[in-house]
Amino acid sequence: MKTILSFIAVCFLTLSVNAQEFKFDSELINYGKITQGSEGKRVFKFTNVGDAPLIISDIKSTCGCTVPSKPEKPIMPGEKGQIEVSYDTKRLGGFSKAITIYSNAKQERMMLKIKGYITKAGTEEKKEEKEEDQKS
User: Fold this and answer.
1) Structural domain contains residue 112
2) Residue 60 located in a structural domain
């Protein structure tokens, strides 16, 4: 009985020692409605809430219109990090893209998402002017 309990304790300790984890402030960035050609860079912020250095080995996006960049150095326990994402805002219409993060965390693969709607330059200003004219 003592041997079984010792074995279970060792297994539990082995699993908890390598428990790197990270928690994002948000796993979705909603660009909302933005104008064609406007700034497409956004930042996902996270904290290493594990007990070992977090190493992000790779980041992939679902298309070439979304370019993510990862931290090059390990994020130590308790430290904050960020992942920058640039979306090509020259494309009109709605978008929803996924960014996959590969790391040494307990959950080796994590998915982040961006979404929004790109309107033609000048469209929003005309709409606002029309609404103001109707109020007058």
Assistant:
1) yes
2) yes
Q: Which domain holds residue 67?
A: 26-120
The pTM of the whole model exceeds 0.70: yes
pLDDT band at 121 (very low <50, low <70, confident <90, very high): confident
Q: What is the pLDDT of residues 37-85, one digit of tens each?
A: 999 999 999 999 999 999 999 999 999 999 999 999 999 999 999 999 9
- 123-132: list long-range contacts, CB under 8 Å, 24+ apart: 123/35, 124/33, 124/35
Residues 6 or more apart from 55 whose CB is under 8 A from it?
Answer: 20, 74, 75, 103, 104
